[in-house]
Specification:
alpha/beta; Rossmann fold; 252 residues; globular; 9 helices; eight-stranded mixed β-sheet; TEII
């Protein structure tokens, strides 16, 4: 069955509309990622969950737009878009850069009573855990080598010069956004946080994963899966099951 695509703005993709769902899940892509990364999530969780995926500028149908290389600015823009999607409880899910972005969007909307009922952070150290990074300063070969190390992009795509030319501007803006990001101290989130991580992810140590607990005044839970930074590709059934259980614990 083909997915039904419904687009409310350049920022929002609703691949499998579920108007009767009691919960909405907003998904934030990783650096270099696009909304279509979450198409399988939408197909798997509908109709019980209405899934939205954020489409950043600079990729796919937005490839002619300049990328946004400041994560705080990106969070401001996404928060503005999500104000229109408050007709039911909302949960945020973000992987890698998307986890930090989801956190920052939640911080912006929480004071207005529009924040998420829960935040699921995947493959990213807690915002308060700083690590220097300079991938965005390297040449194209350096960026590609980083992608190969993390196994986030299909190898055949990285060997295609035409594809690389298309995706490199977005990659660079995303890497600059996440590597220049600095956490600004402020109130913790009032919603619970579920942190998902791979047991061999070079980007997240166990301590950095647990540190998400300081960013909430509600409950914190950590789940670890086999795999590296993109463990969720290899462990998709288990991750989707964990998400379904978290979103609807009464049916687990």
């Amino acid at each position: 069955m083909n997915a039904v695509t419904e687009q409310s703005s350049a920022w929002i993709r609703r691949f499998q509309p579920a108007p009767a769902a009691g919960t909405r899940l907003v998904c934030f892509p990783h650096a270099g990622g696009s909304a279509t990364f979450y198409l399988p999530v939408a197909r798997s969780l509908a109709p019980a969950v209405d899934v939205l995926a954020i489409q950043y500028p600079g990729r796919q149908d937005r490839r002619t737009e300049p990328g946004i290389d400041d994560l705080h600015q990106l969070a401001d823009l996404v928060a503005e878009e999500l104000r229109a999607w408050q007709d039911r409880p909302v949960v945020y899910f973000g992987h890698s850069m998307g986890a930090t972005l989801a956190f920052e969007v939640a911080r912006r909307l929480q004071p207005e009573g529009l924040g998420p009922t829960a935040l699921v952070a995947s493959g990213r150290r807690a915002p308060s855990c700083y690590r220097p990074g300079a991938v965005h300063l390297g040449d194209d070969a350096h960026v590609v080598a980083e992608l190969r190390k993390l196994s986030g992009t299909a190898g055949n795509l990285l060997d295609d010069d035409e594809v690389l030319q298309m995706i490199m501007p977005a990659l660079r803006s995303d890497y600059r956004a996440v590597e220049t990001y600095r956490y600004q101290p402020g109130p913790a989130l009032s919603c619970p946080i579920l942190m998902l991580t791979g047991d061999s992810d070079p980007e997240v140590t166990p301590a950095e994963a647990r540190a998400w607990a300081v960013h909430t005044t509600a409950g914190f839970e950590l789940q670890t899966f086999p795999g590296g930074h993109f463990y969720l590709n290899e462990q998709a059934p288990a991750v989707l099951a964990a998400m379904a259980d978290y979103l609807h614990p009464e049916s687990a």
